[in-house]
Amino acid sequence: MKPLTHSIATVVTALAALALPALAAAPSPPRTDGIRRASVPTADLRDARVIVKFKADSALLRERTQSARDPDRVAVQYAGRMSQRLGVALQDGRMIAARTQVLRARAMSSAELVARLQADPDVEYAEIDERMRIGAAPNDPRYGANQPQTVTPTVGQWYLRAPDPTIVSAINAETAWNTTGGSPAIVVAVLDTGVRGDHPDLLGKLVPGYDFVSADGDGSFTSANDGNARDGDASDPGDWVTQAESDSGPLQGCDVGDSSWHGTQTTALVGAATDNGVGMASVGRNVRVMPVRVLGKCGGFMSDVVAGMYWAAGINIPSTFGTGPANPFPAKVLNMSLGSATPTCGTTYQSAVTAVNGAGVSVVVSAGNDAGLAVGQPANCAGAIGVGGLRQTGTKVGFSDVGPQISISAPAGNCVLPGASDPCLYPILTATNDGKTVPGNNTYSDSFNISVGTSFSAPLVSGAAALLLSVNPTLTPAQVRSTLMSSARAFPTSGGSAGTSTCVAPNGTQQLECYCTTSTCGAGMLDVRAAVQAVPAPTNTQALAYATPAAPAPGDTVTLNGATSVPGSGRTISGYQWTMVNSGGIATLGATTNASTATVTTSGGGTFVVRLDVTDNTAATASTTLTIIAAAPVAPPSSDSGGGGTLSWPWLLGLGLAVAALRPRRR
Amino acid sequence: MLTMTWRHGVLLGALPLCGCAQDNLTTPPPDGVRILVTTRSESMSVGLVTTQAHNLARVPVSDVVEVGPNRYRMTLVCPDEASCRDAVGRVRGDRSFALGVDIDPRQQIPAKPTREMSR
Question: Rounded to an integer, what distance in angstroms lies between the CA atom of residue A173 and that of residue A543?
Answer without folding.
Answer: 25
